[in-house]
Write a structure and sequence with these properties.
alpha+beta
Length: about 350
């Protein structure tokens, strides 16, 4: 690094830089020598997966089970939601949420229903809401935490009502079957309601933070048929995996490729279910887009906010709630410049 400033005082910049370099490796070791000969995906912030899997897979370490579609017709219901920040007041934040329920039967999409947009005002000292959620107030200092609270509570309510009102159906959850401090209707309540009405609750995750599963996913990617493998013990016995903190004890964790040319996803299924029957029934009754159920895909796209939604929400609040809009500045851009 060369000196780029003409300082009015005498400093040995080169000596300072050399001293920084000498201490850098002890703070953050580069370990570049360990990259020699390794496969690599060049990426930025987005998570990528190898198209044909990694060379180093775990085929010899796991049991791969084939998924056979079963000639059983049931209704599949996918539930998803989204939440955005709409505005800010002197003592709180305004959020909007949308939910969607999509239904498929016997390999065909039947219908879908959109709920919302809905508006919620969360004050920074909203003790009533906090008491109802049984969470600490400091969690609500984060906008992202508040958005997650709204989504979790809405989705759990929908999943519970569907599991209570339908029978002999499959209810798909977008994400793992993992407990959350924001739940009003807990996953235990939903699973109990499913058992009462002979429903099946299945959680599907597009990715996982447990890096060791990449090798196992590569093994499934190379198979030419729908398949799955059970990784419950691998995740629950790993002390570095954040999932094992909130995972339910009665849930089986799988990696699965739901169709022959699909991507490998994580599947959470209550352990009292027959895994082969559950997955075989799912692949028979839902449409699989790259190995992902269309019910969840449609529910996701339908619940996403558009620019028109945001304009309508602003107009509604101005006309019906008599709010007073004030101009705002981006503090970061004013302080640092436009490049930020």
């Amino acid at each position: 690094m060369k000196t780029q400033l003409n300082l009015p005082i005498t400093l040995d910049i080169d000596a300072i830089i050399d001293n920084i370099k000498d201490n850098m490796d002890s703070i953050i070791p580069s370990r570049l020598e360990e990259l020699n000969g390794k496969q690599i995906i060049f990426c930025n912030d987005r998570s990528l997966i190898p198209t044909y899997g990694w060379d180093q897979d775990a085929t010899d370490e796991i049991i791969i089970n084939k998924i056979e579609p079963l000639n059983v017709n049931v209704c599949v219901v996918g539930v998803d939601s989204s939440c955005i920040l709409v505005g800010e007041t002197v003592d709180g934040f305004i959020y909007s949420a949308k939910c969607c329920i999509a239904l498929a039967y016997s390999g065909k999409m039947i219908t879908h229903a959109k709920i919302g947009p809905m508006l919620f005002y969360v004050k920074s000292d909203c003790n009533d809401t906090l008491d109802a959620c049984n969470v600490q107030a400091n969690n609500y200092n984060s906008v992202e935490e508040s958005k997650r609270m709204i989504r979790v509570r809405l989705e759990r309510m929908l999943q519970y009502e569907i599991s209570r009102l339908l029978s002999n159906s499959i209810i798909l959850v977008d994400g793992p079957l993992r407990a959350s401090p924001y739940e009003a209707y807990t996953l235990i309540n939903i699973i109990d309601a499913c058992n009462t009405n002979n429903n099946m609750l299945i959680g599907l995750s597009k990715s996982t933070s447990f890096k060791h599963l990449s090798r196992i996913a590569s093994s499934l990617t190379k198979q030419r048929y729908p398949c799955y493998t059970d990784v419950t013990d691998l995740i629950k016995n790993n002390s570095n995996c954040k999932d094992n903190i909130l995972l339910l004890n009665n849930v089986s964790l799988l990696l699965a490729k739901l169709n022959s040319n699909g991507l490998v996803i994580r599947v959470d299924i209550p352990s009292m279910y027959d895994i082969s029957y559950s997955l075989g029934t799912l692949v028979k009754n839902d449409i699989l887009h790259n190995g992902y159920p269309d019910t969840l895909r449609i529910a996701h796209h339908t619940s996403v906010f558009t620019s028109t939604d945001v304009l309508c929400l602003k107009s509604f609040m101005k006309s019906r709630l008599s709010v007073k809009e004030v101009d705002g500045d981006y503090a970061r851009r004013l302080l640092i410049g436009r490049a930020c």
